[in-house]
């Protein structure tokens, strides 16, 4: 698979090297602080439209310490802040952070979701792969290809991002998303951050999809080691929070949230 990625990778003007990839995009390094996110297929109009929406969303949210920095739009893609430590998912494969560091990430991720919702945006794919880390191990939420809302709360534009099954709130319409569906995915993100792996690790997202849905729907939630995080995560999965700010309140003060402990 890696061979195929590098064989088809191409470098637009200014891109130095391959850094990563998304569903429809390559990530290339421009310099030490900047990356370019651009279509896997040069000139792909659908991918460019989604990237244009991401630029619009990031502009609407504005600069924030827990949102990936937006540096401008080119004809061939988006210039974004480079988070040099990679994603939380990648980090957890190589390190074992303290409980305090994990809790800091959980709280920072919640703050990022709260800021996103206040801007009238539903992320639609909150997960540990979309939580990047800078040099100080500070969380930066990325990959904004969800719903941009109108003032009345209806969907203005849809970037077609959707949660994976282990972060998916059971609902009749799989294309419907709101703050609660993001918060449900935030719960699965908490679980991964604190436990070091996804919920139901013994179950396959494809082969066991209906069983996973059934467990979430019937509130057969996996338990966590931390009493605090177990309670907050279960409330996220149960749909008991109406806002990410309410999640932050339950998480308590950020005074015990050190950054960059590794």
UniProtKB/TrEMBL annotation:
One short Pfam name that applies is Pkinase
Q: Which SUPFAM superfamilies match?
A: Protein kinase-like (PK-like)
Please indicate which superkingdom the organism of origin belongs to.
Eukaryota
Q: What is this protein called?
A: Protein kinase domain-containing protein
Q: What are the transmembrane regions?
A: none
Q: What is the lineage of its organism?
A: Eukaryota, Fungi, Dikarya, Ascomycota, Pezizomycotina
Segments forming domain Protein kinase:
1-262
